[in-house]
C-alpha cells in the first residue's frame, strides 16, 4: 500500500523561505510566537532536533496510523530557546522529540510507543482531531 507524503513536512528553524510561515525572527532565529502558534494550530506536531532518528520513528508510527504530523526541526543552539518558550505548555522538562497532541505536551518516543502498544493512542488522536476514522 502506498501512502501520500506531502511536499512540506518539516518546519526548519532560522529559515526565511516563502513556504515557511511568514513571521519575524527573534531570539537568535527562533520566534517563540511562531512555535507556540504551530503547536496550537496543529492537532499533532513533533518538535525535535535536526536529523534526529527518534523523530523519524515517531513520525513514521503516526503516519502508519493515518496522521501526518509536521516536524519542527530545532538546531542545537536553538534548543534552549525553544524549550524555554514552550515551558508554559508543559509541567515536566522538555526532551526531544516532543510530541504535542491537541496543543498539549503528550510526551516523547517512549510515551507514544507505550500508548500505541496499549491501544490508547488512536482514541487520543481521534479526540484531538488528528484522525477522522
From TrEMBL:
Residue ranges of every copy of the Glutaredoxin domain listed in the record: 44-105
Keyword Cytoplasm found: yes
PROSITE patterns per the UniProt record, alphabetical: GLUTAREDOXIN_2 (PS51354)
Subcellular location: Cytoplasm
Record has Cytoplasm as a keyword: yes
Entries under Pfam families matching the protein: Glutaredoxin
InterPro entries per the UniProt record, alphabetical: GlrX-like_pln_2, Glutaredoxin, Thioredoxin-like_sf
UniProt GO cellular component terms: cytoplasm
Subcellular location, principal: cytoplasm
Domain of life: Eukaryota
Keywords on record: Cytoplasm, Redox-active center
Homology family: Belongs to the glutaredoxin family. CC-type subfamily.
PANTHER family named in the record: GLUTAREDOXIN
Protein name: Glutaredoxin domain-containing protein
Organism (species): Clitoria ternatea (Butterfly pea)
Amino acid at each position: 500500500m502506498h501512502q501520500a507524503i506531502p511536499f512540506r513536512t518539516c518546519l526548519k528553524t532560522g529559515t526565511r523561505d516563502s513556504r515557511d510561515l511568514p513571521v519575524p525572527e527573534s531570539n537568535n532565529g527562533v520566534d517563540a510566537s511562531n512555535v507556540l502558534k504551530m503547536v496550537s494550530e496543529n492537532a499533532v506536531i513533533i518538535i525535535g532536533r535536526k536529523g534526529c532518528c527518534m523523530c523519524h520513528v515517531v513520525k513514521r508510527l503516526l503516519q502508519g496510523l493515518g496522521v501526518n504530523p509536521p516536524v519542527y526541526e530545532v538546531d542545537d543552539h536553538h534548543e534552549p530557546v525553544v524549550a524555554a518558550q514552550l515551558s508554559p505548555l508543559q509541567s515536566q522538562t522538555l526532551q526531544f522529540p516532543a510530541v504535542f497532541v491537541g496543543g498539549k505536551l503528550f510526551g516523547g518516543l517512549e510515551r507514544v510507543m507505550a500508548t500505541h502498544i496499549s491501544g490508547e493512542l488512536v482514541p487520543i488522536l481521534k479526540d484531538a482531531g488528528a484522525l477522522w476514522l
